[in-house]
């Protein structure tokens, strides 16, 4: 049996967090490739809603998996995140990546608004390929209490796992303007899990940090 434990990340974990992100997704998303570890560090410090989590292999002390859960608890609807910077080789690449980024988060933004900003969004989940299929991914899903409606933009690889944890799944194709229609498409499984428990005492994880007290 693997000897894994979920812990909160600290700043020193961010390079490994990005390394696992890169290894697990292997260049599936333009904006992941372009924005890199610098942006991960910015998110760690700058975003009010984030919970950066990791799974440690207790036998070696190595961080083998990571997740970012965004938790909105009725404190007002935040603006949709925007991507900027100077990471691209030319203007057109930057514009394309910004469209992709915007389209990727469009469904989630609607859900945040419609839920009155009472929502848990699994923003990132990845397991180092050397440690996959040993339960680490499921541990990082299960840290989120069932008192929150939860959403995830699921990959093909994550879809079955999310389905077994109560998420359902229409397929979503991120739209881009006419001039980019010949480029590769970005798609995901737009998956939602309704609130499953009203019992906040038993369904809140030690690793998720609530920032205000408007939980339902
Ligand atoms: C998806 C991912 C997070 C799963 O993590 P994991 O630790 O390997 O998964 P677990 O061992 O906890 O999950 C077990 C279930 O996931 C499914 N699963 C795991 N890896 C899979 C793969 N490569 N292909 C299909 N299903 C897979 C298995 O069906 C398994 O279910 P079972 O044990 O009932 O058969 C991991 O494969 C990963 O990092 N993938 C690349 C990045 C990614 O797609 N992240 C999800 C973004 S939404």
UniProtKB/TrEMBL annotation:
Superkingdom to which the source organism belongs: Eukaryota
Protein name, entry field: N-acetyltransferase domain-containing protein
Organism of provenance: Aaosphaeria arxii CBS 175.79
Organism ancestry: Eukaryota, Fungi, Dikarya, Ascomycota, Pezizomycotina
